[in-house]
Design brief:
Blueprint lengths: L3 E2 L3 E4 L6 H8 L15 H12 L4 E6 L5 E9 L7 E8 L8 H14 L6 E7 L3 H9 L3 E14 L5 E12 H10 L1
Parallel strand pairs: 5-6
Antiparallel strand pairs: 1-2, 2-3, 3-4, 4-5, 6-8, 7-8
């Protein structure tokens, strides 16, 4: 992935030295969909950074002034080039929430995926209790396409039974994105 700069951020591939920052927010993920990514220590974080560094769809969100990794994005397309559809998502360190960083980063990623990568459609899955991500999708111009009832389980109850979550799918087409960008 090419490096993308915004007013306050740098979006770049993960690299050696990012482990402590990644551990800071994956030690205790706030969104249930990221619970499987939980990291216990710096050694695990270093292994995860190595995996992400080799994954073209994995993007570190860094503060421009300090270089600190404050979250990550992903934008992964399928193997079918004719489909030109990519799944997108974000995970921000809660210490940096409420400052517009997620929107700034996702907006830049969307521009890159629609422009440089030529995707036709982007979509995101969001659990029904993740209001912040729902708002972000809507601010990005995405539309809610549907709700999958008891779609996926990330946790179990006290008896060990899976707790299934309702998941919404949001999406936006390149032509919708371009019309929205042109209107801004």
């Amino acid at each position: 992935m090419q490096i993308i700069e915004t007013e306050r951020l740098i979006l770049r591939p993960f690299r050696e030295g990012d482990a402590a920052d990644l551990l800071a927010y994956l030690r205790a993920p706030t969104a249930t969909c990221f619970l499987s990514l939980r990291l216990s220590n710096l050694a695990e974080a270093e292994i995860e950074v190595g995996k992400r560094a080799r994954d073209e769809g994995s993007v570190a969100i860094c503060l421009k002034q300090t270089g600190q990794v404050i979250g990550d994005l992903f934008g992964a397309g399928g193997d079918d080039e004719e489909d030109a559809t990519a799944s997108v998502g974000w995970n921000l360190n809660p210490q940096f929430g409420g400052q517009g960083y997620a929107y700034e980063a996702a907006r830049a990623l969307f521009g890159h995926l629609f422009g440089a990568k030529g995707f036709r459609r982007l979509y995101a899955y969001v659990e029904d209790h993740n209001i912040a991500s729902q708002r972000l999708c809507e601010k990005l111009g995405m539309r809610k396409e549907g709700v999958f009832i008891e779609f996926v389980s990330f946790t179990n109850d006290d008896a060990g039974n899976p707790i299934y979550e309702n998941t919404m799918q949001y999406a936006i087409l390149r032509r919708e994105w371009m019309a929205g960008v042109a209107a801004v």
